């Protein structure tokens, strides 16, 4: 069990926590139990889990500037946010310039990525502390109406921290506030294992039309290739590594807890979908196996009349010897 404070983005009584592996998940389970004891009058903390937004710390990927506005490394992070935060405005930080950093020797250990300057500190809803060695970010925030206070911090990559890191335990004046309590939605939720491909896009469109909230499990590389139309149809995205089945099952079962179904259109992912559904206690829906070799052998065994490319008017265009394509019986689900 392991959790760093910088994996948590504090928004009053709402906490967004990054989970990159199973140790983090166990730690967040503990955090929720610990915070439950601090609830007073029904106004306790709420933990919102995000999966693999970063390998570890979240504050060089995403930071809150004031209610309704987030500073983000890229627009794609919106898909990883909890539903309550997807309507917030994202200010995307400009790419870091190599000239903003000192030059180090090959043997020096650099503890952060070049995006460390995204690690700013909000002093109040309109004032932000920004590294003076990152003028591009300062200009971006000023263009959005923020007052920027420039403070120089040259060796942030060598020492492994930015302004948000240094001030993580800051206690601010005023009362803690959180998002308005949301009424639980009866909308069915389904996790689709890999949404790439035309069939998956058709399923996503059909799910949206039917009022089903469809989430996708994929890899960062495949997600980068999703088109705008598909991204708009998905209610959420979780990253995992399908080449590590045990790890993928752990990731996806945690994400799909409370979902109404797990679906895949790829037969090679069927074992992961089944085990994920078992662990998350939701129905698994996978396509029936249809070996191509069996279909070809049926055609070869058919009589010449059944293989005719021009069936008589009113007759079925399929050969009589083809196996039935009716879907198998499956457990009923809420969707």
List keywords for this structure.
335 residues; alpha/beta; Rossmann fold; five-stranded parallel beta sheet; three-stranded mixed beta sheet; globular
List the topology elements.
Layout: E1 8-11, E2 14-19, H1 22-36, E3 46-51, E4 62-66, E5 69-72, E6 89-92, E7 121-124, E8 127-131, H2 135-143, E9 147-151, H3 156-159, H4 163-166, E10 189-193, H5 198-209, E11 213-218, H6 220-224, H7 228-233, E12 236-239, H8 245-255, E13 261-264, H9 270-280, E14 284-285, H10 292-301
Parallel strand pairs: 2-3, 5-6, 8-9, 10-11, 10-13, 11-12, 13-14
Antiparallel strand pairs: 1-2, 4-5, 7-8
In short:
The protein has 335 residues and is of the alpha/beta class.
Number of E strands: 14
- Provide a count of the helices: 10
Q: What's the CATH class label of the domain at 189-285? A: Alpha Beta
Share of residues in strands: 15-25%
């Amino acid at each position: 069990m392991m959790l760093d404070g910088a994996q948590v983005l504090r928004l009053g009584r709402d906490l967004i926590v990054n989970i990159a592996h199973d140790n983090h998940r166990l730690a967040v389970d503990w955090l929720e139990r610990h915070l439950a004891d601090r609830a007073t009058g029904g106004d306790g903390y709420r933990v919102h889990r995000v999966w693999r937004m970063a390998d570890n710390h979240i504050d060089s990927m995403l930071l809150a500037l004031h209610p309704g506005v987030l500073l983000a490394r890229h627009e794609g992070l919106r898909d990883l946010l909890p539903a309550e935060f997807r309507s917030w405005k994202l200010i995307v930080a400009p790419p870091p310039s190599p000239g903003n950093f000192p030059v180090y020797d090959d043997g020096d250990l650099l503890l952060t990525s070049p995006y460390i300057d995204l690690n700013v500190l909000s002093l109040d809803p309109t004032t932000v502390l920004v590294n003076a060695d990152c003028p591009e970010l300062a200009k971006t925030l000023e263009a959005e109406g923020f007052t920027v206070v420039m403070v120089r911090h040259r060796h942030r990559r060598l020492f492994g921290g930015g302004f948000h890191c240094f001030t993580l335990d800051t206690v601010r004046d005023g009362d803690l506030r959180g998002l308005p309590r949301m009424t639980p939605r009866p909308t069915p939720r389904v996790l689709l294992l890999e949404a790439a491909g035309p069939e998956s896009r058709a399923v996503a469109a059909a799910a949206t039309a039917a009022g089903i909230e469809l989430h996708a499990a994929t890899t960062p590389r495949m997600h980068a290739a999703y088109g705008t139309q598909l991204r708009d149809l998905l209610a959420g995205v979780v990253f995992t590594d399908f080449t590590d089945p045990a790890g993928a099952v752990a990731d996806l079962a945690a994400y799909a807890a409370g979902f109404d179904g797990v679906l895949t259109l790829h037969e090679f992912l069927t074992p992961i979908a089944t085990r994920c559904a078992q662990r998350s206690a939701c129905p698994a829906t996978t396509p029936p196996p249809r070996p191509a070799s069996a279909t070809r052998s049926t055609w070869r065994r058919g009589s010449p009349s059944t293989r005719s490319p021009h069936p008589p008017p009113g007759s079925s265009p399929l050969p009589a010897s083809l196996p039935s394509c009716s879907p198998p019986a499956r457990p009923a689900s809420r969707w």
